């Protein structure tokens, strides 16, 4: 437990340094543990009397993962632009492929942020085979199997090859294999974002919004 807490502290410190070095400004807030429920953003100062600002933090748009940011990426941008222009991907799939690839890329610019995202979920899609077996005979068990089968098909037929193509542009990631679990992670992460934001057209991901 102590080791895990120390690892979390190191990741948080790395994330805060990354934010600062990339122009983010925590004007009146801080990040800290939230009662065993991961990390939260907390206000550190009351608004100034008469102030209409109310800005707690500023995150540069350059740190947001958007379709335009993906296309401007010096490593994978040219290939992503070709995929988009050829109709192989749309904006939503472009962001998904990029985030999945960057999460597996050893030297990713986004590593300090990606290390802060949840690594496990309570969704039945994330259950082990043993955990899933306990649901046998339920509607949830059947629904989970149907959805997993559909996702596995999408992964095998399109997602795996495209993510590995983006990864292998970088020699340091040339031997990295993308797993079905990587795709599941993104799908569940996306569902979590949808549940917690009013921005349902999720073509952008902003550091800070969803921490572990």
UniProtKB/TrEMBL annotation:
<dbReference type="InterPro" id="IPR046341">
    <property type="entry name" value="SET_dom_sf"/>
</dbReference>
<protein>
    <submittedName>
        <fullName>SET domain-containing protein</fullName>
    </submittedName>
</protein>
<dbReference type="InterPro" id="IPR050600">
    <property type="entry name" value="SETD3_SETD6_MTase"/>
</dbReference>
